[in-house]
Description:
Number of helices of chain A: 11
Shape of chain A: globular
Oligomer: homodimer
Strand content of chain A: 25-35%
Order of helices and strands of chain A: EHHEEHHEHEHEEHEEHEHHEEEEEEEEH
Radius of gyration of chain A: 19 Å
Helix content of chain A: 25-40%
CATH architecture of the largest domain in chain A: 3-Layer(aba) Sandwich
Amino acid sequence: MSRRSVFEVDRLALSRIADGGAVLGSGGGGNPYVGRLMAEQVLTGGKTVPVVDIDQFADDELILPIAMMGAPSVMQEKFPSGKEIPALVAMMERLMGRKVSAILCIEAGGLNSTIPFVAAAAAGLPIIDGDGMGRAFPELQMVTFTLGGLTATPMAMFDDKGNGATFDTVSNKWTERLARALTIEMGGSAMVGLYAATAGQMKPYLVRGSLSMAHRIGELMAEHGAGAARVLAETYKGAVLFSGRVRDVARRNEGGFTRGTVAIEGTGDFRRREVTLSFQNEFLAAEESGRVLATTPDLITLLDANTGQPVTAEMVKYGLAVNVLGLPCAPIWRTKEALDLVGPRYFGLDVDYRPL
Amino acid sequence: MSRRSVFEVDRLALSRIADGGAVLGSGGGGNPYVGRLMAEQVLTGGKTVPVVDIDQFADDELILPIAMMGAPSVMQEKFPSGKEIPALVAMMERLMGRKVSAILCIEAGGLNSTIPFVAAAAAGLPIIDGDGMGRAFPELQMVTFTLGGLTATPMAMFDDKGNGATFDTVSNKWTERLARALTIEMGGSAMVGLYAATAGQMKPYLVRGSLSMAHRIGELMAEHGAGAARVLAETYKGAVLFSGRVRDVARRNEGGFTRGTVAIEGTGDFRRREVTLSFQNEFLAAEESGRVLATTPDLITLLDANTGQPVTAEMVKYGLAVNVLGLPCAPIWRTKEALDLVGPRYFGLDVDYRPL
């Protein structure tokens, strides 16, 4: 089957996707610097990877989602060895008993929108224009595919030392529990392949166009620099929720996640106000003395006020001037069933979700 | 290939093996009551399982070791569902790409000398007269096969809920680390298959005859009751190291193991003396005010002084009258290389091994 690509991704395009993915990552999804470094290693000599719409695939073709799992603050220091990805693709093909036709990003993120390109480039495969979240979420069961009844397993995971494991679990929540325990033992991060399914099974649930969107966001950031927060809010029907300086960061690695809070003291129009962001890998809520500005599943992203670059939850530091950008989530996350999976109450926040 | 069996195991014989296995288990290897209950479920209507010498197998035939992994104090309360074992055998055959010719016990123990019979009975396979330790040890890499350079992986594990996992690791120590982490997340115990290898690979390293020996020990116990400790010491060139009452037990579940100490106050010939046993699933050392009576890899086993029944480390209770039986380990454990793997210093005990 000959396929038309939406666009071809070279080194520059992948660098834009890393930036835009980090915005969609909502504070998580891995560090865009790591994503950019990996891109430079893999797309050498003008090599490109085609990004293809899922409708270009026959319903029975196999699609393999790939991601890096773990605590982002570990991932930025514990670089993949490079051998995990070919081992992962080979193992998933063995488990599924057939060849993979395309790679998919499980989530959007600086790292998780780019690492699947390493797999695609190595295997000579295209990558689907979409993902399973339209943002990043901390736990494996938090994908649109769970809403569609798809199973996370068979799943494979490999660490940087060469240890591999596979799972076959009774629920996607159990996949999360077991894989999280192993990720911790593997040193805090691992490369994973899961939710392998046919294009036909994925089509109704895929968040479509998210790689194109990440790329476009990256371009807007390059074009507008410090003004990117305002432009992104206008372009994607979001809002600049707050602007200020980081007054305090509490961050800990716990249970295989990076968890904590960021307190921001208002500046300019937001003077004399203070906002607190809570996070579990991703930002979950932005609150101002009891008033909720935004919560999961809507996207909450920090942008450096001076450069317009995204600041993930594991990178944010005392004193940094930031804009808090809120963007609406993919519509599929706004049903009752979806909110049970990824809404604020799942994470122990005592608030109802109110769309941005 | 038609094979001559050493003996046929029916319900009574399996009950004897559970008792004798618990003696060889050196305080670990799982609860013999659980082993006996499982035996009664599986060997109904006069059904038997043949115990066969490994020399009856061609060098290229595949042998599958099976065990229950975890903290014994969890195992005695969290009974297997029964579905784990067929799932395990099927998964291991898929991983090895071929059929299994016989089942093997990884270790001796009240539970781990009997649970492999469930697998053998279900699959219609014989069981090998031997094991990989000649006793029980707490960690997966502690088998004679590690000395022979055999790899623990591919390994499969299943829990009572139906969750399965497989491993392919860079060392047998890494198999232990990853599988232990998953065992904890699975609730503290899991059924495992590992060290699958050909009869030819196993022959030089197998501890031979240990099922016959467990059976014989069980018979001697039934025959001699409270006098069993003395008879076993005479028969197997061991010694009754101490007799007394349990004065204190400290026990905790930690890192997927049951760990602690047992203090015993001497009675009779041992009046005015006190011995302390330390354990990590299995008893590791018996010490009397700085003097070492016995250490791993030699076997240290507690027998109820009134009944002669073995008392595993997770069952021992305040006030119980006990005999401390020491038995020599299989000779393969007495080399320098073997002592690095299972000797007292590995477990953090600051003593050299001195054979019983």
